[in-house]
Here is the input.
Amino acid sequence: MTTSAPALATPRAERTAETAAPADRRGTTAESARRSLPVDLQAVGRRFGERTVLRDVDVALHPGEVVAVLGASGCGKSTLLRAVGGLDAGHDGQVLIDGAPVKPFDERTAVGFQEPRLLPWRSIRRNVALGMPRGVSRAAGRERVDELLRLVGLAERAELRPREISGGMAQRASLARALARRPGVLLLDEPFGALDALTRLKMQDLLLDVHAQTGTTVLLVTHDVDEALQLADRILLLGADPAEDADDAPEGATVSRLLEVPGERPRDRASAELATLRGELLAGLGVDAHEH
Amino acid sequence: MAETTREQNQECAPARIRRVPGGRVALGAIVPLVLLLVWWLVTDILGLFSSVQLPAPQEVVAAGVELHERGELGQHVAISVQRVLLGFGIGAVLGLAVGSLLGLSRIADTLLQPTIGAFRAVPSLAWVPLLILWMGIYEDSKVTLIAIGAFFPVFTAVYSALRHVDPQLVEAGRAFGLHGVRLLTTVQLPAVVPSVFSGLRLALAQAWLFLVAAELIASSMGLGFVLTDSQNTGRTDRLLLAIILLAVIGKITDALLGLVERRALTTWA
Ligand SMILES: Nc1ncnc2c1ncn2[C@@H]1O[C@H](COP(=O)(O)OP(=O)(O)O)[C@@H](O)[C@H]1O
Ligand SMILES: [Mg+2]
Here is the structure.
């Protein structure tokens, strides 16, 4: 079953990618098996015991689109991402990937966690290989892993152990592992949050390259407004619903805003249009933009 | 974890010692040699003790040679080593199996943990009369006692290590399509290798402890028998010989296990 699922899904993915091509603005390089799947969140919510963390999240991600999820710390960004990846079965509502409900640890998705989560006793190469779908021949698997290692610039470090490389490299290895199964939806949970500023900028460029090559749909959780503005086609701001009265709104975060980011990537960080958006987003996060 | 501290110690040792081959072994031999020298001084040279109280080193060597020439020394050593290895092997395998079962399965844990906890609370030597009653005073009861002694350190190490495998790594494994046996062999077992080895080394020490206990209580061969027999016949030289042999053989088996551990840790940790 594990072997046949990607093969079945691929033609479908190509079809959906073609019909929804406008969302994939950089999608020019045709990789052998580009996969991008649409994701439909319908009234997704999550309660932990008595406490409601998320409620009524309705969003549709177009195939090949990059959507950033912004929100204050602890508002439920990771919870939302885990629901989409099938890592958490306890949510309400429906998550549809390519029209079909998400399955536990869904193979059509791949997750890049906030921490690299590499197996410390395996070389970088074998960690990346862990992401390969079952039933790929040894030779094909090895070729694919080499290709991924080159893509994230780790070909020279392939035989090292995770503890022998820097945090940025470990995060790149984690990204390569997530890409190994050619996910139709790539889920990234603050993947660059722990990195220094310079490494973070490099990783953002790398992600754009990867996206250009693979065309995968990306759901990117971040708390960094500038990162969202640089990378995303659209930004989903989690928080209070502006249509509701702040005083007696129900508990839990929902879609506060969903806005389109103008301009082709890479974007000019100094553009006035982005500055206005940045101000709005910071205000939505409860930060006074003028103090920054 | 023990491995890293040992490596750090090595780092701290003066560079000159590390450069000499066997330098660490030579350093470690200083204290035993000094002890031997003091022993020789107070017995043979100064004559502070009678040979029943404390015989001179060469008398102990002579006792060893004598036993060897009668063909008994090798037999005592061989039977003791055999008992330890058998008991340790059985106890360790069972400890690994039961520890894995309870560490991985919530149902097995709920069902069996209270029982095993109660058995663990029994001081293991309390089993001796029962074992002798059931199995007689022959090999079975001794090997069983040693296996009991070796079981619990391994069980405890495996069980608690499996309970504490980084849940983030396990989740990552699942997210990349691993489950069941593949998840076990890819993530969970490798993650507990270091703890398993500290459990095994503890179990080996326990095995020697229980060997002596078993042989002191009832046996006609083995190093523990040499101990009681020499006590009864007033042969302090043989008594010391048995103690020294236990120390040396115990240290050798521990060092061998340490070698395996070192290899395993470079592969898995
Ligand atoms: N398994 C869980 N059990 C109970 N509470 C949880 C669990 N996972 C997350 N939470 C709570 O849900 C809230 C949102 O968590 P999370 O999605 O991780 O926030 P963030 O936006 O920082 O990623 C937090 O307050 C957290 O305490
Ligand atoms: Mg989070």
